[in-house]
Design goal:
alpha+beta, 2 domains, 9-stranded mixed sheet, 4-stranded antiparallel sheet, 6 helices, 13 strands, about 25% strand
Amino acid sequence: MRLDKYISHATGMSRQQVHKAVRSGEVTVNGNTVRKTDTQLAENDNVQLDGVTVVPRQPRYFMLHKPAGYVCANTDGNHPVVLDLLDEDWLDDLQIAGRLDIDTTGLVLLTDDGQWNHRMTAPARECGKRYRVTLQYPLSDDAAEQLRHGVLLREERKLTRPAVLAFVDCERTTVLLTVHEGKYHQVKRMFAAVGNHVQALHRESIGHIVLDAALAPGDYRPLTAAEIAGGQHA
């Protein structure tokens, strides 16, 4: 990694501030003063700023219980964003792993570990996402079987991948649906394809990570070591 990027990421200093410190001789690498900001660092190099060792920040991993009305984006000109709910530094470094529509609630994962994010969200990983779906009409056995085998969404050429579906109530208007892909508005479009309408949508899990029942809407917590480690193999 470049020296200026390393210091900026570890300290929160702007690149301009880092460049000034380097040019002023305030930065050493393995005890030697370095004045080139593009110096490439080896894995075990010791970087010091004003005699203090610069320790890289550890990656962060959070689960958030997203309420309705928030957009899964870093910024939005019209609506509040999920990052507004976090009391953390360096919010701009966080990536959203698994976005939800503004009216959809439930589990959202946030991290500044790009590789972990990719493992959780890449289509090839087929990471299952389970939703609690409230429907306008009772779901028929025939419609349920169509969803389990795959349906053709509007303006799509291929069937969706087979979904896992289970009924929650005897009225057959609340179901648990697990999908293994992430098409635009996919769950809503899947039920529309079988003649139904989603009235409420709540994500319960992504892969092995289940939304903590102790989290109220708008609350968040760091992931446990086991949750993070499981994501390494998602």
